[in-house]
Design a protein that fits this description.
Helix content is 41%, strand content 22%. The protein is α+β, with helices and mostly antiparallel strands and 366 residues long. A hairpin with a 6-residue loop joins β10 (311-315) and β11. Bound molecules: alpha-D-galactopyranose.
Length: 366
């Protein structure tokens, strides 16, 4: 192949945080920020990047060549290994990676890199996978690269995104549908400046805790357990209070996802008011039941509401990263500036805002 260009966006999750760890629903949108790979087929994999720094030098099956493969190269290597396991013929790539996604902001820069690399590697070998097969391979690559037991949210959102819509994905069955966003709605993302690193966060601990809770309901589909059943089980001492809180978040969050999808389909003033309440409840649940918020994220959410956002909550894997606020397009920049200004006088960290729109998913662009 002569040089071809591949694009994979980052994502913002509107609601449905950590529900992919129990097969529940999520509601992400792909962003207009992402990772671009321009490359041509070669014998080995040789990719460089100014923004990310450094180079990936690998054999076509993902095994390392030389000792330059630090940092982001691990993700490319892991994708190549996962694709080889699915039967991708050994073909390399030579070219360049660039990215407009902030790293550590909770907008899935690693998933975007995995997906872009996956598309480019498949194209180089004339190999093709369905979007959700590639998403699953990229998710396994994340586990392989950094040992994080993440769900399918990030990689699926990057592949399935559609301009103007959010994706309502059932992470258990992988069935999905598009939820058109109200015309004129902007996604205001504010990075708290407190960077998150999944592998060093409490993400894995939270997953163990929710699994401990599920062990009290052996044989049950986690998404069918009700809050009332959970309460009874806790009262009878069948699960400890930490495990119960984690599962309570996952169950209640699933209900909120379904409600938000309904409200977005009928954006009357009353629905928008309710949207704000549901986002607020979602944030509170991540804060107190899942315990993955930070004081900076709490502050940003409070400021966004105070400055007129329709709805605001933390988004992504937590323990740092960003919030998402919904605002009308003509008010979005003003909201972002007002929040940044107020944050500056309260917090030590430097926040950054991105006014985004829901965008198309990963693809070859030329
Ligand atoms: C990270 C993970 C996702 C998901 C979110 C929280 O982004 O990679 O699978 O669990 O956190 O919703």
């Amino acid at each position: 192949m002569s040089a071809r260009v591949f694009w994979a966006p980052g994502r913002v999750n509107l609601i449905g945080e950590f529900t992919d760890l129990v097969g529940g629903p999520v509601l992400p949108a792909a962003l207009d920020l992402g990772v671009r790979i321009e490359a041509e087929a070669a014998e080995t994999i040789d990719l460089c990047s100014h923004e990310l720094g450094g180079r990936a030098r690998l054999a076509a099956d993902g095994s390392p060549l030389g000792d330059e493969n630090e940092g982001w190269a691990r993700y490319v290597a892991a994708v190549a290994v996962e694709l080889a396991l699915l039967g991708r013929p050994a073909a390399g790539l030579e070219g360049e990676i660039s990215s407009t996604l902030p790293i550590g902001a909770g907008l899935s820069s690693s998933a975007a890199l995995e997906v872009a690399a996956g598309l480019a590697l498949c194209a180089a070998a004339g190999f093709s996978l369905e979007p959700l097969e590639l998403a699953q391979a990229a998710r396994r690559a994340e586990h392989r690269a950094v040992g994080v037991p993440c769900g399918i949210l990030d990689q699926a959102a990057s592949l399935l995104g559609r301009a103007g819509s959010a994706v309502l994905l059932d992470t258990g069955s992988l069935a999905y549908e598009y939820i058109p966003l109200p015309a004129g709605l902007a996604l205001v993302i504010i990075d708290s400046g407190v960077s998150r690193r999944l592998e060093s966060s409490g993400y894995a601990t939270r997953q163990e805790e929710v699994e401990r809770a599920l062990a009290a309901f052996t044989g049950r589909d986690p998404t069918e357990i009700t809050l009332a059943e959970l309460e009874t089980a806790e009262a009878k001492g069948r699960l400890d209070s930490i495990a119960a809180r984690r599962l309570r978040h996952a169950i209640s969050e699933g209900e909120r996802v379904r409600e938000v999808a309904r409200l977005l389909g009928d954006p009357t003033p009353a629905s928008l008011q309710r949207l704000g309440e549901v986002f607020a409840a979602g944030h509170e649940s991540v804060r107190s039941d899942w315990e993955a918020s930070t004081p900076e994220l709490d502050l940003l959410v409070e400021l966004a509401r105070e400055k007129g956002a329709i709805a605001a909550r933390m988004t992504g894997g937590g323990f740092g990263g960003s919030i998402v606020a919904l605002a009308w397009t003509d008010e979005a920049e003003g909201l972002a500036d007002a929040v940044l200004g107020a944050y500056e006088s309260h917090a030590d960290a430097q926040a950054k805002a991105y006014v985004c729109r829901a965008s198309d998913g990963a693809r070859e662009i030329s």
